[in-house]
Specification:
Low-confidence stretches: 2-10, 15-20, 26-44
Number of helices: 9
Shape: globular
Largest sheet: none
Oligomer: single chain
Mean pLDDT: 76
Structural class: mainly alpha
Strand content: under 5%
Helix content: over 70%
Length: 264
Amino acid sequence: MNGPMKLRVISMSNFLNKKGKFCTNLLNLSLKTVINSLVSLPSLPDMQVKQILTLLQKDATIEWRQKHTLFGVLLYVGSTVFAVFMMNGQPEPKVWNALFWLIQLFVTVNSVAKSFLQESQARYRYYFSIVSPGVFMAAKLIYNLALQLLISLLSLLLFSVMLGNPLEQTGLFLLVTLLGGMALSSVFTFLSAIAAKANQNAALMAVLGFPIITPVLMILSKLATKAIMPIYQAGWGQLALVLCMLIVLVIILSLILFPFLWKE
């Protein structure tokens, strides 16, 4: 290779090395800038968690201001249990179990299912401008689950005091009560959202919920029977698995389908 050609090759290689270093430094600077900007801003999940907590606080504040609704539900549970005690005394374990879940059904309809029906259209428009539909629905599901579990525990306390306590495995019954609260609250929360968009028609919620809740109540009754009478029950685990899958399915469908209701 002659002298001028060799000099050209060396000059070209030096130019490429300098250009490569410049591009590398520019890329590193860009990456640092992007990372610093992402670190300085709150992440999307954190923002969603804060929005959910704010909505939960809002629902709890409204519930506390409207004490007549919560106390009315508690009065309904207490009067029903007292009426059963006066008419029949302490019932048999199977009757006790059936009465407990029937009362939980009516409590859910009167308390949890009103979550969307009590909101005004003006308040809806305000919510739509500040949060996403998934966050709004998730907050409703969590709050209604907490409310349902609270009322279920109070109902269990009243049942134990006035109608006796036939439970042989209290921990297992509390677990079934947790699953039942999740199932009832999730189903009626979503049905309440549908009814709220149908001109606040609460009767529609009852019509749509009956064919869904009937098998759920049958499953809950069979699952709770093991806590009352600790005998071998074939297929108990499969029933519990079916109930868990149903809860997951309802929650997923609620989060997927609610945005379509949100746009209406």
